[in-house]
Amino acid sequence: MADTMNVTDYIATLAQEYGEQHEKVAFKAEPFYAPGADSIIFYVRDTDTYRKRLNSWVTLYLSMDDGRLAGFEVKGVKRILELASAFRVGIVDHKIKLGVLLTVALAQVTKPDVEPYASDLTEYGDREIEMSRLLAA
Q1: Pairing, β 128-130 against β 69-75
Q2: Which residue from 128, 70, 134 is spatially nearest to 99, judged by alpha carbons?
Q3: Given pLDDT bands bounded at 50, 70 and 90, which one contains residue 1?
Q4: For the chain, N or C: smaller number of CB within 10 Å?
Q5: What is the greatest pairwise CA distance in the chain?
Q6: Quick one: how far is CA 135 from the chain centroid?
Q7: What is the pLDDT of residues 12-60, one digit of tens each?
Q8: In the prediction, which pLDDT does 64 show?
């Protein structure tokens, strides 16, 4: 069985693993970039979760309470940005929409695997992350 923890504890653990300073703060639904993992992690609810890996690029965090989407992680962000930049896709005002990252990362996932979470994922596709946060790392 996958290990479980709440969002704030997970973020603190991830930061500690990569030698970053992190203080526990109130939950805020905001994507963040973890440079050591080259991942964008976005929790939308502060709840205990378990992981469901869709492919080598996308992991969903599902609520232990109801099994619904509580967050997701997109790995290989720099490679995705290289692909997007080569085709001049999705970078406006030095920001990229999470939907662009998810589209590339989910390209090889079969419809039945992603369909139960598709409406929740598309709800967060317009959320943006500053490119400077990604490129500085």
Answers
A1: unpaired
A2: 128
A3: very low
A4: N
A5: 42
A6: 17
A7: 666 666 555 555 567 788 888 888 889 999 999 999 999 999 999 999 9
A8: 93
Mean pLDDT of 99-126: 86
Strand partners, 52: 60
- Could you tell me the CA-to-CA distances from 109 to 92, 115, 127 in Å, in that order? 27, 10, 22
